[in-house]
Design a protein that fits this description.
The protein has about 130 residues and is an alpha/beta fold. The chain is built from 2 helices and 8 strands; from the N terminus they run βαββββαβββ. The mean pLDDT is about 95.
Length: about 130
């Protein structure tokens, strides 16, 4: 069953629900993401993708399907080269961040969780 043509090559996008895409775009741009795609689709929807400045995997800010929840644990982990400065900057900007950076000791890097405007949870981890 394993052939070169059928192998998965990379993660392209992850999707998180956004009830207000303009608000979400503004939020993620505040984090330093850039909007690379914003096009209409399906008649009444928009397809929006944001990317971290050095990243190749983006986040699609997708309208939730009817009945699907927002405020999910996304499983998305982002990195920063200065965890304390990033935490302080987000907190000062009014982002819903954990009260403190979690420090569990080696080999686990310092980290903290934050929530986007829809309550979707993401993790920021110190880059080694």
């Amino acid at each position: 069953m394993s052939t070169t043509a059928s192998r998965i090559g990379e993660i392209n996008l992850v999707m998180i629900p956004s009830t207000d895409q303009d608000r979400s775009i503004e939020f993620y741009e505040t984090l330093g993401f850039e909007k690379r795609t914003d096009i209409p689709f399906g008649g009444r929807y928009r397809w929006v993708e944001v990317y971290p400045p050095r990243g190749t995997t983006g986040i699609a800010l997708a309208p939730p399907r009817e009945g699907d929840p927002t405020g999910i644990q996304t499983g998305i982990s982002l990195t920063t080269d200065d965890i304390d400065a990033t935490h302080a900057r987000l907190k000062a900007s009014g982002v819903d961040v954990d009260a403190e950076v979690a420090r569990m000791g080696e080999p686990v890097p310092p980290m903290f969780w934050f929530r986007d405007p829809d309550g979707n949870t993401l993790l920021i981890v110190a880059q080694n």
